[in-house]
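SEVERITY: medium
COMPONENT: batch folding queue
REPORTER: lab tech (J.R.)

DESCRIPTION
The queue accepted two submissions in a row. Attaching both inputs and their returned structure tokens so the on-call engineer can compare them side by side.

ATTACHMENT 1
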Amino acid sequence: MAVDPLIELDGVNKWYDDLHVLQDIDLTVARGEVVVVIGPSGSGKSTLCRTINRLETIQSGTIRLEGRPLPQEGKALARLRADVGMVFQSFNLFAHKTVLQNVSLAPVKVRGRKKEEADRRSMELLDRVGLASQAAKYPAQLSGGQQQRVAIARALAMEPKALLFDEPTSALDPEMINEVLEVMRQLARDGMTMVVVTHEMGFARASANRVVFMADGRVVEDRTPEEFFTTPRSDRAKDFLSKILKH
């Protein structure tokens, strides 16, 4: 068991009609841990990620944050979403607001911060993701990689206990991927609790504490990157790795 469990999934099941997308998932993420979830398309990775802040509801099992079951609705659910930040494939920035306004909006609206205080903190976060100079621009004036870094700053502005990343680089041009991964690597070094669904195996190898390999809605392997990449146990993992690791 994790020493200080922050996120716990216990016997989690999810169906879409007849499709059993999550099958008896058990997973614990400790505070400060980086867990990278990988696997073939349709294996349930993104759904798993989205159940942790209740963007997707589950049919059975329990999900706990800091030992408490996820709230069902209302203010408690809004608080959960503030505590568990999410970075998506698409950046979901407000086109009519500046970069600074995008980052400051939720701390003011949800956390009740004063605008000046929120803006000051937002500038620190934009500096952290290398974009302080772009604060007055609008999202359309930025590259995809820059927009995704703004989205990460926006998630950090809520001072979340954990961050979920759902394939954060899959919509980016290849030359922009590394600038986003570098921000994520820095967050990992700084001790942010992260659950990352990604196809970036280099990030998984270098920054993950654990690699969770999923197939057909199940957790097939849950091991250190070293163990998983050098000696995968399951045929599914061996097959997957042979396809994606270019020798």
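ATTACHMENT 2
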Amino acid sequence: MVQGLFLAVEGIDGSGKSGIVGQLAAHLRRQGREVVTTREPGGTHEGEALRALLLSGADDAWDPMAELLLMTAARVQHVRRVIAPALARGAAVVSDRFVGSTLAYQGTGRGLSEPFIRQLHAQAVGDLWPDLTLILDLDAATGLARSRRRLGDAALDEGRFESLDLAFHERIRAAFLAQAARDPARHTVIDASGRPDQVCALALAALDRLTG
């Protein structure tokens, strides 16, 4: 049986994650792989319902600990019902965000304990981590402006984190870079400030290094 492959695409809001997820999936399908694309929070009916609650409304709608637990609840459903079954049958899973975002947003951003988040992750989903996490790195002000524009153009009520100030998003960027520095074997940082084709080429090259 073909071994399953788990990829996550991370980065600040507005860094272009969803586009890269699609490009990675298309590249893997051209190689004959079954590919499952998904996102967090979301990925299941229950996860999408939690997404609507977590990404809309005022920033103070949720206590940080409640926010963490809801994100984790969505991930339990996601892993048990989507990711783990796909990996078990040898598929490639490409997820727009995973636990790296929890460490960045609820850990560094909200100030919750990173050891606690890691322990919760281990207990909740068996300590599942991606084989490779691509971090799309972009200036926080640029990413925030892009994300706010996208939400406005699409009339999406998912701007709860975009309502936070630039300093918050700068902390998130720094947190992702710190994750990559601590575990370079499982992370690749990609400059997301270039043209879309340039960013895509860097992402596909990172994938090919992993699978080649």
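NOTES FROM REPORTER
Helices lie at 17-30, 45-55, 64-88, 99-109, 114-125, 140-154, 166-182, 196-211.
No errors were logged for either attachment.
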